[in-house]
Specification:
The structure is a homodimer.
Chain A (H helix, E strand, L loop, with lengths): L2 E2 L2 H6 L15 E4 L3 H14 L3 E4 L16 E4 L6 E5 L4 E4 L5 H9 L3 E2 L12 H7 L6 H4 L6 E7 L5 E5 L11 H5 L8 E8 L1 E2 L4 E8 L2 H13 L6 E6 H11 L9 E8 L3 H12 L5 E5 L2 H12 L1 H6 L3 E4 L2 E2 L5 H15 L2 E7 L4 E8 L8 H16 L15 H8 L1 H14 L12
Parallel strand pairs in A: 2-4, 3-4
Antiparallel strand pairs in A: 1-2, 5-6, 6-10, 7-11, 8-9, 8-10, 12-14, 12-15, 13-14, 13-18, 16-19, 17-19, 18-19
Helix pairs in contact in A: 7-12, 12-13
Chain lengths: 439, 439
Amino acid sequence: MRLLTDEACRAGVATDRSGHRPATLPDGVVRATTVDDVVETLRWATENRTPVVTRGAGTGLAAGSSASAGEVVLDLSGMDRILDIRPDDQVAVVEPGVLTADLDAAAGVHGLFYAPDPASAAISSIGGNIATNAGGLRCAKYGVTREAVLGLDLVLADGRRLSTGRQTVKGVAGYDLTSLVVGSEGTLAVVVGATLRLRPRPLETATLAAHFDDVVAAAAAAAAITAARLQPSVLELVDSVTLEAVDAARGSALRSLGAAALVVQCDGRGAGAEIDAVAEVVGKFATTWRATTDPVEAEELLAARRAGLPALEATGDVFIEDVAVPRSKLAEAVSGIGEISARTGVRIATIAHAGDGNLHPIVVVERGGTVTQGPPWEAACAVFDLALRLGGTLTGEHGVGLLKRTWLKTELGEDSLDVQRGIKAVFDPLGILNPGKGI
Amino acid sequence: MRLLTDEACRAGVATDRSGHRPATLPDGVVRATTVDDVVETLRWATENRTPVVTRGAGTGLAAGSSASAGEVVLDLSGMDRILDIRPDDQVAVVEPGVLTADLDAAAGVHGLFYAPDPASAAISSIGGNIATNAGGLRCAKYGVTREAVLGLDLVLADGRRLSTGRQTVKGVAGYDLTSLVVGSEGTLAVVVGATLRLRPRPLETATLAAHFDDVVAAAAAAAAITAARLQPSVLELVDSVTLEAVDAARGSALRSLGAAALVVQCDGRGAGAEIDAVAEVVGKFATTWRATTDPVEAEELLAARRAGLPALEATGDVFIEDVAVPRSKLAEAVSGIGEISARTGVRIATIAHAGDGNLHPIVVVERGGTVTQGPPWEAACAVFDLALRLGGTLTGEHGVGLLKRTWLKTELGEDSLDVQRGIKAVFDPLGILNPGKGI
């Protein structure tokens, strides 16, 4: 085990993309490239009672892998091999540092795909996806990361190795330790390998972009698509603040078409017919819409969504929130966020996975400003409160991390937290795995 | 709390459909109709250190709800209300005693369906489905029970109430207690309510039945369907022993068409085109095949599968096994089961969910014979061993219950069981919930 302690190394692993800046640096970092490195690190940590913050690509948005003085960082980004792809079983076996998009590309060679697709797929790792139970755009149809993880290879806090789950699609022997570790944000065990489910890559896609007078009409159209029993693989809502930023960045005129947009994609056999049915529904609500089965034109229609975050990031520092509400409350949530922005004077753009009710309100502050305290944080907290009042959750897919921890008791209640702390103690009796994060 | 102690009541709740017959009867049974009944029963049980065996419709196949002297049974079959169906959110809220098919029918009124479909759907309850993480025919495409459960209302062993999960499609606040309780076979908590995910009911279906010279050709055809990236909602393999039983029961001549059959159903937009593609693949392996989009004709094609178990049950007492293997090992598994049958002289028929590698070898003994000891049980154990050697699991969807418990350590290992016992102790420190079952 080699603990790197020079300041540049420690500074490079001190936080993630949440905007959180710890006051101190971690004591050191181990760059693991083998399972043995992880075992050795955890044995040492147990012996020395030293907290370990496990880290993948560092793209988290809740400060789940931020680390401070007294802690060491276990960096798994170097464990980045795809160990096996078995097309007949539609299964991949990977190390945790593999980037999500790289796995998807490797699956593509066999006509398969890896369904979970966080917007960060090009830069986030499978291990981080597992730590947060990452979602993405295609979840309403294909499920989140948990539904794609069949089994895990773990190293426990004391350095013992443990395999969970199975290589089969079904299996119910014993408690579901796999699902328990998925989303546990590095607090239960260190994931050193994963057996993942792949799916047949859809042969056809069809795409539609529609514009609306206001966000209420766009949300109503999204609800009508669901009510019509259509099941797009992508159903994204983009608000006016985002459209303005995209126009400024790309020289487009999307905002002039309306104050909100929906981007819809259908896939699989009959995608063209399904998008026609979507168009028929959307047409009743939209100011204008366009559909295509041409992949190049599709990229243009998707631009309003894909270019949204980079365009906002070009205008300042951002804090990306991640609340989810029952699908029927989507319009109320987006309107409520607009009111919070107006009341607090904090700029908030909203992009939402309308298909599953997961909203990403994006708080934008001026460059170098702080997003995790003061008015921006108060606005963020008002959004948490709104989501809970609408029967929703603090976090749909980014995790609790450090930043949302104070809110967790409000959502879960003391009895639930008690049980969860009991489970934490079973896995990590000394409390050395990512203390102060997640639960 | 009213404890019924007359012998008829106790005898009626002593076991399930596994064929296991406990040597003694439980001490009594509480027929709960409200959450308060459950709370009161568990408080009493905690106070008196009395083990509680929770029971739904009693259709389990692993003796998971069998009960003996010293135990009381908590019968939830009377808590059978569908409390809410919210079509806009595609969510249902139910009590545990609701029969699976009743929920599906109620969802159908809104153009929705409940995707998990154990073959027992007409007689099994949602609570039992949750206890075993029940699967069924449509899992390869739509997932198992765990993927349909968004949240649970629980009563803990000491009578405290606890809600897990959420009303939203996505959510990652805290550990996934919901997934932990799904499949825990009544050993962690008593499920008194569930928030379930519904899906758009497919508008179209298309069905195909194909016959093959042998089971190896049928398995190869199933693998070729997967390799062609087709995703049927149903992909079932039926062996010659089953076909013979169906012929005897129905006067059909399916066995004369070949020694194995596949029944395939595609659904959703483009189902007809997808079944044509299936036919093209299957045609290379089959002796004969027939496809239809007509629902009445489809029922006839499905008969080979649907009539299989009742036809076998007409010939003797059955023990339905439930192993799963990686999909690529399906042919090897079916052939291996045939060899075990030949070697032991025990009659074993096999029906398999070929789409997900889950096999149901059905051990048939003469009426009144014992299936859980002697040669039939030895044959069953040989099948467990085969499944594990092929990289599979003891149980795909029926659970461990009482019957497979001695095999669990072989599959999971001691370290995993240690962690699971630790989790059990967090939920149920006195060990009063369904002791001796599951883990």
